[in-house]
Amino acid sequence: MKPTRASTLLGVAVVAAVAGFALDAVLASRQVPTLFLATPLGVTLALIGIADVLMARPVRRHARDGAARQRPVDPMYATRVVVLAKASSICGALFGGFALGLVLYLLTRSVLPSLGSILPNAVAVGGGLVLTVCALVAERMCVAPPGDDDDDLPRGGTTQAH
């Protein structure tokens, strides 16, 4: 599996920001209250990011220590952590970008809204950013270093018992 590219995350965040800005613009043009996200959303996104890193720690520890030679890392666990980290980085970019679009719409109004209107969306932007960064760190923590066995074999070679 290839690492998550920054261009993918940036593209997701930009599209989500445009969607958030456009949604608020449409709501305001129809005389409907604009959208604002709840503060616990941003906190929850940040906590999920921290959980991603905590889940990746055993994989990193196993890959770096000598214990990895005695007992291999459970490949299913490592795969699950990498897939969770990849999905979390994309979700963080999506939620953070959408909330950023909502904040940008509020800040472009002729009358500056109150802090109570901006703060929940700003917390969601921060939570999405924390989730994305933590997920990228967790994904990098699960990269296995090249093993000693890899250097002994020629490319495409296999071991044979004599």
Q: DSSP helix count?
A: 6
Approximate shape: elongated
Mean pLDDT: 86
Order of helices and strands: HHHHHH
What does this structure look like?
The protein has 162 residues and is an all-alpha fold. It is built from six helices and no strands. The longest helix has 33 residues, at 75-107. It is elongated. It starts with 5 loop residues before the first helix and ends in a 10-residue tail after the last helix. Residues 148-153 and 157-162 have low confidence and may be disordered.
SSE layout and pairing:
Elements lengths: L5 H24 L9 H26 L2 H4 L4 H33 L7 H27 L6 H5 L10
Helix pairs in contact: 1-4, 2-4, 2-5, 4-5
What is the structure about, briefly put?
With 162 residues, the chain is mainly alpha-helical. 73% of the residues lie in helices and 0% in strands. It starts with 5 loop residues before the first helix and ends in a 10-residue tail after the last helix.
For this entry, give a set of tags.
mainly alpha, elongated, disordered C terminus
